[in-house]
Amino acid sequence: MKTKAAAGVLVAALLSPFNTAHADAITDWNATGAATVVAALPAERGSVGLDLSLVHIAMYDAVNAIRPRYRPYVAQLSFNAVGASPDAAAATAAYAVLRYYFPSRTAALDATYAAAMAAIADGGAKTLGVKVGNEVAQAVVNWRMNDGRYAVVPYVFGSGPGAYQATPPGPPSPVNTWLPGLRPLALQSLGQFRAYGPPGLRSETYTRDYDETRLMGSSSSTARSAAQTEIALFHTENPNTFWARNLGNFTARLGLDLLDHARLMAMLFVSLGDATGACFDSKYTYNFWRPVTAIHNGDIDDNSATVADAAWFPLANTPPHPEYPAAHGCVAGAVAEVISHEVGKKVSITFNSSVANTIAHNFAGPDALVTEIIDARVFGGMHFRNSVEHGARLGRKVGGWVDEHYFQLLRPRH
C-alpha cells in the first residue's frame, strides 16, 4: 500500500529561482542541487533530469537505510545503520553526489554542508549518519559510471519537408544529441515507450495543428488573448529552476515524514529524468521540423491547405532540438502521473514562474497542470498541439512505470 498524502493541500508559491519553502533536509538540498546545476555552467554541464535525480536517489537510499521501510533503489549498506541521524545521512549523501559531479562548486557546497551539519547535534548518531550518507553517495556514483552522459554525438540535418532544421536564435547545432544513448534511471530502455511519431504533412491533424500554431503562437498574434500570452511566457522559465523549485514547494507542504518526503521527491525526479531521456530518444528518432521552419515553408510541404508565411516568428524562442514530441509535455505527464498515484488527482497545486509579468498559477490537480502546459507550448509558438499531447502521454507511461516498479514497501518477514 502506497503512502497517500491528504488531498486539498495548497502549496506556497515563492518567487526565488531556488529557495523553496523550508521543510527539511530534502527540501533544502533540492534547492541547493538546482542552484548548483545552474551555477556550475559552463564549467560543468548539468540538469535536474539527471543530476538532481541522483541527488534525490541518494537521499532516499540514505534515509531509508536507517530504518528500512521501502526497497532500496541502489545502495545496500555494508553495516547496521540503526540509530544514525537521518538528517546527517540525507545531507551527506546529497552533498557528496553534488561535490563529485560539480567540482567547480566545491567551495559553495562545502559552506552549505558545514551549515547543515552545524545544525545537527554532535554525537554518535551524527557520525553514523555521515557514514551512511558517504557510502550511499559512493554507491550512486559507482552505479552511474559510464552511463553515456554528455557523450559527443554529431548531428547531421536532414532535408526536405518535415525535416528538422536549425532555428533562430540558434545555436547552429541541436543540443542533447547524447541523451538517447544515456543509460536510463528506471526504464528498461529509453525507447521503451517511444512516441507514435508526428502526423503526416497532408493529414487533417497536421493541418489543424499548423493553423492553430500559426494563428495562436505568432509573436504578433491578434488571436491570442493577454491571458494566453501570460500562460505561454509563464512556462518559458529555465526547466532546471522551474521544476526543482515548484516540486520542492509542492512536496514541502504535504506534511510527510523525512523518508516519505525523500521517496516522493525521488519518484518525481526519476520519472522526470527518464521522461526527458525517453522524449529525446523520440525526438532524434523522428527529427521533425519546428513550427518556425514549417510555417516558413508551408508552400513546399505538399499540403495545399497550409499557408506559408516567411515573416512568421514564434512568441517565445524555439529550443534547439527537434519538435516531436514536446519535452515540456513529457516532463509534465511524468510528474502528473506520480502525483496522481501518490498524492491524488484532486490535490490543489500552486506553481510560480520567475519570468517577468507572470503570476502564480493555481491548478485543481495534476491533470490541469498538464492541460495548461499543452496550451502554453502552442501559444508560445514552439510546438504543435499533437506533439505536446503525445509527449504528455509518453511521460505518463514513464511515471506509471516508476510508480509500479520502484520505491515499493518492503514485504513483512514471517
- Percent of residues in helices comes to 40-55%
Terminal CA distance reads 18 Å
Q: Architecture, CATH level 2?
A: Orthogonal Bundle
The strand line-up of the biggest sheet is 1-2
Structure class: mainly alpha
Number of beta strands: 2
Low-pLDDT runs of 5+ residues are: 1-15
As an assembly, this protein is: single chain
User: What is the 3D form?
Assistant: elongated
How are helices and strands ordered from N to C? HHHHHHHHHHHEEHH
Q: Rounded to an integer, what's the Rg over CA atoms?
A: 22 Å
Describe the structure.
This protein has 414 residues and is mainly α. The chain is 50% helix and 1% strand. The protein has 13 helices and 2 strands, in the order αααααααααααββαα. The N terminus is likely disordered.
Write the layout of secondary structure elements.
Blueprint: H1 25-39, H2 48-66, H3 86-101, H4 106-118, H5 124-143, H6 204-216, H7 226-234, H8 239-252, H9 258-286, H10 291-296, H11 327-342, E1 349-351, E2 361-363, H12 366-379, H13 385-405
Antiparallel strand pairs: 1-2
Helix pairs in contact: 1-2, 1-3, 1-8, 2-3, 2-5, 2-9, 3-4, 3-5, 7-12, 8-9, 9-11, 9-13, 11-12, 11-13, 12-13
